[in-house]
Specification:
The complex is a heterodimer of chains A (173) and B (306). Chain A contains 7 helices and 1 strand. Chain A has 173 residues and is mainly alpha-helical. Chain A has 2 domains: 66 residues; 71 residues, Orthogonal Bundle (Arc Repressor Mutant, subunit A), CATH 1.10.10.10. The termini of chain A are far apart. The relative contact order of chain A is 0.11. Chain B has 3 domains: 44 residues, no CATH class; 121 residues, Jelly Rolls (Sandwich), CATH 2.60.120.1440; 72 residues, 3-Layer(bab) Sandwich (Phage tail protein beta-alpha-beta fold), CATH 3.55.50. In chain B, the strands form 3 sheets. In chain B, strands 2, 3, 4, 5, 6, 7, 8, 9, 10, 11, 12, 13 and 14 form a 13-stranded mixed beta sheet that branches. Chain B has a 3-stranded mixed beta sheet with strand order 16-19-18, with no helix packed on it. A two-stranded antiparallel sheet of chain B has the order 15-17. Chain B is elongated, with a radius of gyration of 46 Å. Classes of the chains: A mainly alpha (173), B alpha+beta (306). The interface between A and B is large, with 49 and 39 residues. Strand 1 of chain A pairs antiparallel with strand 1 of chain B. Chain A: It holds the Pfam family Sigma70_r2. Chain A: Keywords: Sigma factor, Transcription, Transcription regulation. Chain A: Belongs to the sigma-70 factor family. ECF subfamily. Chain A: One of its GO terms (molecular function) is DNA binding.
């Protein structure tokens, strides 16, 4: 308990924190606003601020600090109604022996899926993407978004329902 | 479809996600269309990956910004320190200004006149110091003094001169105080009272034409005839005084030190020397005593011999 925490004011510690959290926090904000450039700007500013406040943020709380500060910064920025998740990409899957037709369909379906995710309410969208794309557990998501696990599950189920409403008819079995 | 209603609802799915469904419910759900659809969507969703983010580029950007802004707080912090230092200095200066003393000092061979607020004039001989309170002085006319000076005090309330050896109190008068090794007070007008610091000695009153010597805690009073102290006329006069006092006075008026190893300095000297010129002063003091003197090249050291 009494062990000295590393100081964020040290360049090495700061860089380690940056490398550990920058990408995940940026993605989180991206899932909220759908604008990668804006997300990067927000999170970079959060890190600049962290450097200035390096002596007043404790190392053990830095992750929570980053998510909260980024979220606050996001809330303070206006204009994020039009969501286009154009940076959500399809992971390269083994496509070798698929027919071009099928690939086309998959391509189209992905486009629709992205649109459907983009049109979800922000709170459901971020939970959904943190879970399905970032592969975070509900507990982790609860920690990041600072809501209870129950609320995460509720948002998640609403997101699933919303996606099914839009995409259900597209699916052929 | 009732089945669909059952599964495609928020509460049910939440329970499913939380792993709270019973075996039975789970089995039923897994065979439903809702489940298959959700799984199919999930299947594809899981193939999505987040945006590509160049962390190192961002780190470089942020580090750059940090270094730009890094200078600011440092400067600001310095600013604060210097602001604090300045305030303290200001307070100190203000304090010493309002509650401190005005000090006048003369060096070797210097003379200075000080006019006090009540019109009193104090003429300082060489190597002397006078200080008094800057404010509220007129309510309490007192000066601290060391060295030699001629006081011409305007009549009024009690005026005090504090020395190392005692306090000289006057009403309005003219007098000279010489406080070198011994204390000598000469009263030229009016009366002065000397109260020694050591309490077992009685205060001594001097009237016009009286002088007082105070050494080894004895007080001797004499009469004198001069109208002004000799030093004010530019010379020092001695009558039957130890030669050591002459040397001391010489080194007050001239920036020299004496090397008088083999010389007996307790011999008595009567005579005077000028403050204008070291050569003349030495001539008039050394020759009557039968002494030879040698002035060093930098005119700092005078070596005496028989």
């Amino acid at each position: 308990m009494t062990e000295q925490e590393p100081s964020i004011c040290e360049q090495k510690v700061y860089e380690k924190i940056f490398r550990t959290h920058y990408e995940t926090v940026t993605r989180y904000i991206y899932y909220k606003c759908g604008d990668l450039q804006q997300a990067e700007d927000i999170v970079q500013n959060v890190f600049v601020k962290l450097w200035k406040l390096c002596s007043s943020v404790s190392f053990s709380k830095v992750k929570a600090y980053l998510y909260r500060a980024a979220n606050n910064a996001f809330i303070n920025e206006k204009e994020h109604e039009k969501i286009v998740l154009k940076h959500l990409k399809q992971s390269t899957i083994s496509i070798d022996h698929e027919s071009p037709d099928y690939l086309m369909e998959v391509e189209q379906f992905h486009e629709k899926l992205k649109n459907a995710i983009a049109s979800l309410p922000q709170k459901e969208r971020e939970v959904y993407l943190l879970s399905r794309v970032e592969k975070k557990t509900y507990a982790e998501i609860a920690e990041i978004t600072e809501i209870g696990i129950k609320a995460v599950e509720r948002r998640m189920s609403r997101a699933l329902l919303g996606l099914r409403d839009v995409l259900g008819k597209e699916l052929k079995f | 479809m009732p089945m669909e209603e059952k599964y495609a609802n928020e509460d049910f799915l939440s329970r499913w996600l939380a792993g709270e469904l019973t075996e039975e419910e789970l089995e039923g759900f897994r065979t439903s269309d809702v489940y298959r659809e959700l799984m199919a969507i999930d299947e594809e969703a899981k193939k999505l990956s987040g945006p590509e983010i160049d962390v190192e580029k961002a780190l470089a950007l942020v580090t750059d910004k940090n270094q730009q802004s890094k200078k600011e707080p440092k400067v600001r912090r310095l600013w604060r320190i210097s602001a604090a230092a300045a305030s303290i200095a200001l307070l100190f200066v203000g304090y010493t200004y309002f509650f401190g003393n005005v000090t006048y000092s003369t060096g070797i061979g210097e003379k200075e006149s000080v006019l006090l607020a009540d019109g009193s004039l104090i003429e300082l001989n060489a190597n002397s110091t006078l200080s008094y309170k800057r404010f509220g002085w007129e309510d309490d006319r007192a000066v601290n003094f060391d060295g030699e000076a001629f006081f011409d005090i305007r009549s009024g309330k009690d005026f005090k001169v504090r020395t190392r050896q005692g306090t000289v109190s006057v009403l309005g008068t003219r007098f000279n105080i010489k406080n070198r090794k011994d204390l000598k007070i000469q009263c030229y007008e009016g009366t002065v009272v000397f109260s020694p610091l050591s309490s077992h000695l009685e205060p001594t009153q001097l009237s016009e034409g009286m002088e007082m010597d105070f050494n080894n805690s004895t007080i001797r009073t004499n009469n004198f005839t001069e109208q002004t102290p000799d030093w004010k006329n530019g010379f020092s006069r001695f009558s039957q005084q130890p030669f050591s006092e002459v040397l001391e006075e010489l080194s007050v008026q001239f920036p020299v030190t004496f090397e008088a190893n083999s010389i007996q300095t307790d011999r008595l000297f009567t005579g005077q020397f000028t403050h204008q010129n070291l050569e003349n002063a030495l001539k008039t003091t050394m020759e009557p005593m039968g002494l030879k003197y040698h002035i060093s090249a930098d005119k700092r050291i005078v070596t005496l011999s028989e």
